[in-house]
Amino acid sequence: MTTEEIVQKINNAPRVDFGDIFSRAFDIFQKVWGQGLLMQVLIMAISWGVSMVIMIPFSLVGAFIDSTEINYSSGQEVSFVAIGFMIIMYLIMAIILSVVSFALQAAFYRIVRLKDRNKRDTTGVGFGMFVKKQYIKKLVVLSIFQIGISAIAVLLFILPIFFVIVPLQFAIVIFAFNPEWSVNDIYKAAFSLGTKKWAVTFGTCLVLGILALITGFMACFVGVYATISIVYLPAYLIYKDVVGFTEDDDLIAQIGV
Description:
By secondary structure, the chain is an all-alpha fold.
């Protein structure tokens, strides 16, 4: 489907029922909770690894400053350089972690689609499916957009972040099923869908998130990693109901060719 077709579907979308999305999210979660747990573990492990790698240059710079005798003026210059270096490294770390999170969540949605259709993985769908040469550049740009939009929303007195968080999640869903689209098309469709279905998406995610946290804390806190992935499912279900999928039609068309 083209961007215009999807935007037209979004504009003409029927009403989405909160209770229906809520109950279906639980149904799908029973099929994908293991993959959701694996995604959280991967994100946590990669985040820890990247943080450790980034901290090595900080330690070397700190050791160099401590071991070098410098006067007051040169000390100020070194401090400014160190601060600038730290800011750059933190930005790099934020982009890397955003790319990893974006890629893993997009792959998770593809896995959810397979489980939802009760299909076995016969197409190479896995958590590394988007960590490939043809997607890396787009993932970096999408991740920078995610960080930039979130930062602007936070600077605008915090409240706008509650609005943009929904379209930003839809951007991941749309990329997952339309990775060939341009970045502008992805965000155009994401904000169109996110604005149209903001209330039901935010409401179901909020309620499911609270329930996931309560259940996870009851399981000695560690259980949160197994339950929190349920909050990703309302965006998938709403995309499914509003936009839909064409895998079977595409397959039939390929067979015809």
